[in-house]
Design goal:
single chain; mainly alpha; 14 helices; 66% helix
Length: 337
């Protein structure tokens, strides 16, 4: 059944939602546009290589003890290709440095969390790795691409919709806690049901499975606070800042009495506000990129990992990301948000 009015789908305020100023590939650099992305890849790989070399004395070869050896050139090429693919998603997907750093944190966390939890890799080593991956995502984008002001501490007037909301410290804290709580509940529930047996079945060489059988709920909440903040940055803030676009105006003018069958189907499938569409797209990006990276990194790098094991572990985080996106969509439909 077609929806009869656009007002049935509230978008967070009485005003139409609005256009996020998407990050432009342009920058203050005088380099030709076609050279910027290749330079971005080189810069990111260089920074990553330097920082991993710098912290190697502090990690004491922790990762080497659980990693598969890469002796073939095609394996190294595939690794570099995937790195370039992730950068391309951020560069051509309209993400700025803050967006892409948050996305990188969220997509790289599952693998390193897995290592520190079940393979007794020191938390400091995992923290170094996540920090390096996030930094090598942020710095090249910040250097070569204009940043969106919606992530500023005080967003300028006229730049975004719901400016008072995205600048409100309380809202930022509550939405971060909401996302952290969802990730905690999903992981905790998985530990209490199917995950322990599944991991033992599909991972050969796990050193410690006790965390799955005896999870500490308060500690999980604390450990997922940075995850909640990153989810808020990547999902909630850009969606809430979205301004009305052409599609919103067309949707508002939809008349079910005069619309054709094709127009009615299109309205029911994609007649969402700009805010909702941005949130859906970003959630889908997070689930797809996070799933692919977790599977490739776990199955391709971890000694004794089976593909099904990597896919199962990835599904936990994909579910958490999906529910977080759905929760933010619901929060955005509350009056005054």
């Amino acid at each position: 059944m077609a929806r009869t009015t656009q007002t049935n789908r509230r978008v967070g305020s009485t005003k139409p939602p609005a256009t996020i100023p998407a990050a432009s590939p342009a920058s203050n650099s005088k380099l030709p546009a076609e050279f910027r992305f290749p330079l971005l890849v080189v810069l990111s790989l260089t920074i990553s290589s330097f920082l991993y070399s710098f912290v190697s004395p502090f990690t004491s070869g922790d990762l080497a003890t659980v990693s598969r050896s890469r002796d073939n050139w095609w394996e190294i090429g595939a690794l570099l290709g995937w790195k370039a693919t992730q950068l391309a998603v951020g560069w051509y997907g309209g993400f700025d440095s803050t967006d892409f750093a948050a996305l990188t944190f969220l997509t790289h966390l599952p693998y390193h969390y897995f290592l520190s939890t079940f393979y007794q890799i020191r938390p400091t080593t995992s923290a170094y790795c996540i920090a390096i991956d996030t930094l090598t995502a942020y710095v090249p984008f910040y250097s070569l691409k204009v940043s969106s002001s919606i992530h500023s501490i005080k967003t300028p007037k006229g730049v975004a919709a719901n400016r008072s909301v995205i600048n409100d410290t309380g809202v930022q804290i509550y939405t971060s806690l909401l996302a952290a709580g969802i990730y905690t509940v999903v992981v905790f529930s998985s530990y209490g049901t199917w995950l322990p047996v599944y991991l033992v079945t599909h991972f050969d060489g796990m050193r410690d499975i006790s965390a799955a059988y005896n999870p500490n709920f308060p500690w999980l909440i604390l450990s997922f606070l940075p995850t909640g903040f990153a989810a808020k940055v990547f999902l909630f803030t850009p969606a809430t800042a979205a301004k009305a676009d052409k599609h919103d105006k067309e949707t508002a003018a939809f008349n079910p009495e005069t619309a054709t069958l094709g127009e009615t189907v299109a309205y029911n499938l994609w007649g969402y506000s700009h805010r909702a569409r941005i949130l859906m797209k970003r959630t889908a990006t997070l689930v797809a990129m996070g799933g692919a990276h977790t599977i490739l990194q776990t199955y391709g790098s971890l000694e004794g990992a089976e593909f099904l094991g990597a896919a199962g572990w990835s599904s936990v985080w994909g579910l958490a990301a999906t529910l977080t996106g759905a929760a933010f969509l619901w929060v955005g439909d509350v009056d005054g948000v």
